[in-house]
């Protein structure tokens, strides 16, 4: 069973990460344990858990560091170095952000510390609802739009992207872009996803041509790819969020496909996004393992 095999691989990767909390850790080595590419592992991990791999490792290390400070007399400097920090200052800054107090204060009797528990994955056997998709071969295409760089740390992208859409709708950007596009569909594109730095470039865009005058907007080329296309039916954003969840919880583990690491996007046709019958799509670049 593909789902069970994927579950075992993810468990092995978590075990590996936990065993390396006091050592240098390369994402390439973690992904190798899961038998997938570094990008695919990080994308799957963040979609399944709600935290990035880097954030998970950071929070686990700070949890273990706090526990060690609370029960031992080890020097703060030694704890900082043990858990991968180059200086006491960098460690103190990260520790204060995670626990709300200094490393030294963690030693005080009765002090409250925050613990980020070790994650575990469980197999959920659903099978009551088929997941329809199609594979589309699409040549490279030009997009015209407006972009912003956003961090994925602490779920900041989930807050900023809806705000970005509200801003573009309010100032007329969305309507102006549609006038420039070759079809009436808006695209919400995640480009340049850097899992290590926890950054991505998010675009609100339309498909254009190389000859289109962008009229002051940005342009980019989305490379040719094989795309897995999934349809969402229902009011935004709940319906499409469920589709994303099922893609990473059910579709990827149950198929022989892997994310290529290229741009991915949502396609929004004209209509009422709050309607029960609103139809939009998720496009993910994939390759066979």
Give short descriptive properties of this protein.
Arc Repressor Mutant, subunit A; alpha+beta; nine-stranded antiparallel beta sheet
Protein architecture, described:
Helices cover 40% and strands 23% of the residues. The protein is an alpha+beta fold. It is globular and about 65 Å long. It has helices at 2-19, 27-34, 38-49, 53-71, 76-82, 88-99, 156-170, 173-180, 238-254, and strands at residues 134-138, 141-151, 186-194, 199-208, 218-222, 225-233, 257-259, 264-268, 279-288. The two termini are 16 Å apart. The chain has 2 domains: 2-107, Homeodomain-like (Arc Repressor Mutant, subunit A, Orthogonal Bundle); 134-288, Regulatory factor, effector binding domain (Multidrug-efflux Transporter 1 Regulator Bmrr, Chain A), CATH 3.20.80.10. 28% of the residues are buried.
Task: Give the topology, please.
Blueprint: H1 2-19, H2 27-34, H3 38-49, H4 53-71, H5 76-82, H6 88-99, E1 134-138, E2 141-151, H7 156-170, H8 173-180, E3 186-194, E4 199-208, E5 218-222, E6 225-233, H9 238-254, E7 257-259, E8 264-268, E9 279-288
Helix pairs in contact: 1-2, 2-3, 4-6, 5-6
Pfam family, one: GyrI-like
Protein name: AraC family transcriptional regulator
Organism: Paenibacillus helianthi
- CATH architectural designation of the largest domain: Alpha-Beta Barrel
Q: Strand percentage, roughly?
A: 15-25%
The overall average pLDDT, rounded, is 93
The total tally of domains equals 2
Helix content: 40-55%
Major sheet size, sense and barrel closure: 9 strands, antiparallel
Given helix and strand content, the structural type is alpha+beta
Tell me the series of helices and strands, N- to C-terminal. HHHHHHEEHHEEEEHEEE
Low-confidence stretches: none
Instruction: Quickly name the level 1 CATH class of the largest domain.
Output: Alpha Beta
For the secondary structure, the number of strands is 9
At the third CATH level, what is the topology name of the largest domain?
Multidrug-efflux Transporter 1 Regulator Bmrr, Chain A
Q: Treating each run of at least 4 consecutive H or I residues as one helix, how many helices?
A: 9
End-to-end Cα distance: 16 Å
Evaluate the radius of gyration: 22 Å
For CATH, the homologous superfamily of the largest domain is named as: Regulatory factor, effector binding domain
Shape: globular
Protein name: AraC family transcriptional regulator
Keywords: DNA-binding, Transcription, Transcription regulation
Domain HTH araC/xylS-type: 11-109
